[in-house]
Amino acid sequence: MKVIGLLGGMSWESSAEYYRYVNERVRERLGGLHSAHCVMYSVDFAEIEELQSGGRWSEARDVLAEAAAALALAGADFLVLCTNTMHKVADELTVLPLLHLGDATAAAVMAAGVTRVGLLGTAFTMEQDFYRDRLAAHGLDVLVPAEADRAEVHRIIYEELVVGVVREESRQVYRDVIKRLVERGAHGVILGCTEIELLVGQDDSPVPVFPTTRLHAELAADHAMGLAGIPGTSQG
């Protein structure tokens, strides 16, 4: 089994879900007492968030590059960056083969026969092109919420979900945002921030949802077990 290098801490609330999902997937596939071979480097999210807010992406990249190098030294065979937003710099983390979250998500969306999707995430993920273009490169038509909805989706992530606060009022906000995306023609919705799955799921949407944390973690486990390659590469 390959060793999964989990680069987490952004936030640790969702990184804990990554650890759970990869191990549940291995147990599901192999049975018995099997669990995943993995190592995790958890960064200080306060430091990363300050760099994000200040637009200091190259400095944030350097923090993650140092962490990725530590994972390589610890024996990781490939890298899983446990955050959607910081995939803005993912292509610059070259010390290990990268299982790109956007590629993993797009593969699941296309496999479901959906081509027009709504995207929920941080303001960085919804408004900048690094993530939307990655999805579009797979043939997906990506819709983002209106400006006021984007602001509220972002606020709930940073003020509530990353510190473990789950409120019913916020769940209803997300349901309403999803409803408006569907009214605009979305046939599925990508939960494009690793914390969003702590708040909403399939029961909150009239169309299929694509939970990026679970999809990414399960594909990582499958790749570690030799059951799946890295999308977009020849690696099996």
Automatic annotation (TrEMBL):
Annotated keywords: Isomerase
Pfam family, one: Asp_Glu_race
UniProt-listed InterPro entries: Asp/Glu/hydantoin_racemase (IPR015942), Asp/Glu_race (IPR001920), Asp_race (IPR004380)
PANTHER family: ASPARTATE-GLUTAMATE RACEMASE FAMILY (PTHR21198:SF7), GLUTAMATE RACEMASE (PTHR21198)
Protein family membership: Belongs to the aspartate/glutamate racemases family.
Protein name as catalogued: Aspartate/glutamate racemase family protein
